[in-house]
Design a protein that fits this description.
Length: about 190
């Protein structure tokens, strides 16, 4: 496939998730150190390739005991499944900046097909620092991807009940991925 190749800049790419807690509010968590790649032909965006890997061992919710519980076998079981992965199987362009990206998401060793609603945030030439020197400009592109999953589909099923039949954690989890992609060295910026 002719086109451009990009890599996800892990320091500026993150996954955020949120689930209802105790029936009344949302608890949010974040996963950094996301690595991935994008290969796309601007003339054929439907043939784009997207792959990503997320370090689940670094989950952060702002509360150390909850973070430890999320890493345990009750939730993510990071001892046995430290990495989540995503590989696109299809891309549909919905508008000039909107895409539906379907692919195989693997969490806790379970793979399911999910579709992310992706918005392209644009591109910009920016400084690029290596070895203490600006070796730019390098082209960066930004994307936000959103989906909703049922955590039980991935074997993340721990829960407890609260008064009047409520639960501690909702079944449905909202996922937002913010990606800063960098054009590989030597690549020609599109358009």
């Amino acid at each position: 496939m002719a086109g451009t190749k990009w890599f996800f800049e892990p320091g500026h790419t993150a996954v955020e998730f949120r689930a209802r807690h105790m029936m009344v509010t949302y608890v949010r968590g974040q996963l950094k150190n996301v690595r991935g790649s994008l290969e796309v032909d601007p003339d054929e965006p439907g043939r784009a390739r997207v792959e990503a890997a997320v370090d689940a061992t670094q989950v952060y919710t702002g509360q150390p005991q909850r973070d430890a519980h999320l890493r345990s076998a009750d939730f993510f079981d990071v001892e046995h499944h430290p990495t989540w992965t995503f590989a696109a199987t299809g891309v549909q362009q919905m508008s000039g900046t909107e895409f539906a990206v379907t692919g195989e998401l693997t969490v806790r060793g379970v793979t399911r097909s999910v579709t992310f609603d992706v918005t392209s945030l644009g591109q910009w030439d920016t400084p690029w620092w290596e070895d203490g020197q600006d070796r730019g400009p390098r082209r960066r592109a930004g994307f936000t991807a959103r989906t909703r999953v049922n955590r039980h589909d991935f074997g993340v099923s721990w829960n407890d009940v609260v008064d009047r039949g409520g639960v501690v954690v909702s079944d449905m989890v909202d996922v937002v991925v913010d990606v800063e992609a960098v054009l590989e060295a030597g690549g020609t910026p599109p358009g």
